[in-house]
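Reading a protein record of the kind used here takes only a little practice. The record below shows the convention in full.

——
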Amino acid sequence: MTISALAGSAAAESLLERIKNGETIRLGFSNDPPGSYPGENNEPLGFANAITAGILKKMGAAKIESVVTDWGSLVPGLQAGRFDIITAGMWIKPERCRNVLFSEPIGVGQGAMIVPKGNPQGLHSFQDVLTRGLTLVTGTGYADVKNAQKLGIADDKIMQVAGPPEIVQALKAGRAAVGVLGDNITANIFAQKDPTIEVVDPYIPPGPNEHPAIAFSINEQAAVDAFNAVLKGYIGSEEMMTSVSKYGYGKRDLPDGKKTADLCNG
């Protein structure tokens, strides 16, 4: 066999085959604790990475490595082949389903708002932000950007930054009146570490529950099917809950029974 033929054979190898063969699987995620973030040696940490790593190991994967990028580059990066799977706990949305294949949900959430300690503006919803003409800050590409736009919040009142650490920084610097995070777990962890901010309670979300999942390339259906087969028995198991408890993920965060196919159809 020629060198070019060998290269072509390797390129044609599916993700599922590579997993079963124990080849290195690249996990793409943003620095978005506690869902996904890199450790000291670029180790993939966070509950979404822990769930994914546990399932991949059961599927035969012997080695995984991290590819850290900003949130807005995750889908383009997957499409360009810079990594094999997105483990950022991306919410399942119809528009995203046109570009990636999602696993079944790995959790449930409604997002969260953070404000300066004492909530001086008395904010509890996107409507409050709109009514008072205030600025909110959230992550680039987050679903809440569209949620805010749909409600009528002007683009110049929607600040988009790289991720949760930058959201907190913008809030603390006074560049926005409120920060919008993807889940309550993340919001609570930041608030516990920083006494100058707090999580809005009660918070009135702009829509129904959101459902994070693991994303694959659009041509890797076999890998998604195999991943889902393991996920079915793994999600909520003692083994899984032990691996994610240190990241603040508890029974309240488990999926609510919604299916990816229905969520993709809107």
Q: What stands out?
A: The radius of gyration is 19 Å. The first strand starts at residue 24 and ends at 29. The chain has two domains: 14-108+211-254, 112-199. The chain is about 35% helix and 20% strand.
